[in-house]
């Protein structure tokens, strides 16, 4: 391999420590990274845009003296604007939409010392729990190339799992960090709402449902990057409670005896694969061995109310995203510019009246209050991350008669017809069957993490989710460090990696 031969043996902080001691030069890390991309990206489809020459130039310095000085890093091709590069959002319509400036989070990534080497694949608008956009093609799961890597940060997850980079950025609006972390055997933390900045253009994403962070192999990399990026920026609508001390200090700190509720019952969907139930049972046993109090309990919520309100907000956001793109790009959007499902969600959004959106947001806020109250009596909640192991490619996308209907309806601009026949509840049921545990905590704004503690009999990663109180990443990170020490996962590699 070109560059540093031991590149894949270290996490991001480990590589930065070698740079700081002068044992390796950033250009060696960049060359090793680019060689890994050359070797593994054709098989997984993780990286959709490369910054080879810009990365090589950055490696020659000067670089900010941050915690990750000289470490290669990939950013998701959604929300994370990189000045002078397109932010395609996985969409044909935005394929040439070049960003005029870095987003505030990307600025903070740069200040941490990382070297940006490219952008990663994402489904169109980040809408699906699988990364299979028509624009760039599918991202494949490194553990089984016939299965999904998850979404919407699937490109980032596959890149980290194949060790192209030690970590990469992601965004989570319904599980989009936790889902691919589970599918690819990684650690994925969704921070508290407003923990990381959303500017300089957007005050919030998807009415506060979305928060960006990173996918990592080690817990400490996630904590250290959160130390480097957290805090409000100018114009922030809300501010997360400040941490009592650096997040990195929590990793390795004793978590104490925690009271942890667990459930195997889907919060939103109606089925659970036995392998995901086994993952929870195994985690419960481990937690007991570590001295924690574990009880079976779950928050209560009206699944139908939640599903319809969540999808109503989503449709409104898709419609607004298309309209905003038309304004900025100066041309009218057409059905051919988008995938059929995205276009139809936009049509549904255009049929909504102001009171529909207001009612949906009120419903979600009421549900969030009820769910958050559950955490008055427990420190954490444990669930499966997903309702099933990584699915075969294409199975979560519209196909056959469903796809044909969406295309015809889209061309007819038949948004009202779709609303009348109940397309929204049908769409919600399909999505939440695979992701019955993650979206609710985007609505409550609570921090949640997927931890890679279990692998199926077929060798597929199965994550478990832990959810903390609002603003309390500290407890999650202390427990994650304890679990990582008890059941180390960093040495597990996908076949051929």
Structure write-up:
Helix 4 (104-111) links the parallel strand 2 (72-76) and strand 3. The relative contact order is 0.13. The protein is of the alpha+beta class and 497 residues long. The mean pLDDT is 94. The chain starts with 11 loop residues before the first helix and ends in an 11-residue tail after the last helix. It is built from 17 helices and 13 strands. It has a domain at 7-255 and 450-486: Amidase signature (AS) enzymes. It has an 8-stranded mixed beta sheet, with helices on both faces.
Supply the CATH class of the domain at 7-255 and 450-486.
Alpha Beta
Terminal-residue CA separation:
13 Å
- The amount of helix comes to 25-40%
Shape: globular
Please report the number of helical segments: 17
Give me the oligomer status. Answer: single chain
Summarize the model shown.
The chain is α+β, with helices and mostly antiparallel strands. Helices cover 40% and strands 13% of the residues.
Give the secondary structure arrangement, pairings included.
Layout: H1 12-20, H2 26-44, E1 47-50, H3 52-59, E2 72-76, H4 104-111, E3 115-120, E4 140-141, E5 144-148, H5 154-161, E6 167-172, H6 178-184, E7 187-190, E8 211-216, H7 219-229, H8 247-250, E9 259-262, H9 274-289, E10 293-296, H10 303-329, H11 340-351, H12 354-373, E11 380-384, H13 401-412, H14 415-420, H15 423-434, H16 440-444, E12 448-455, E13 461-467, H17 473-486
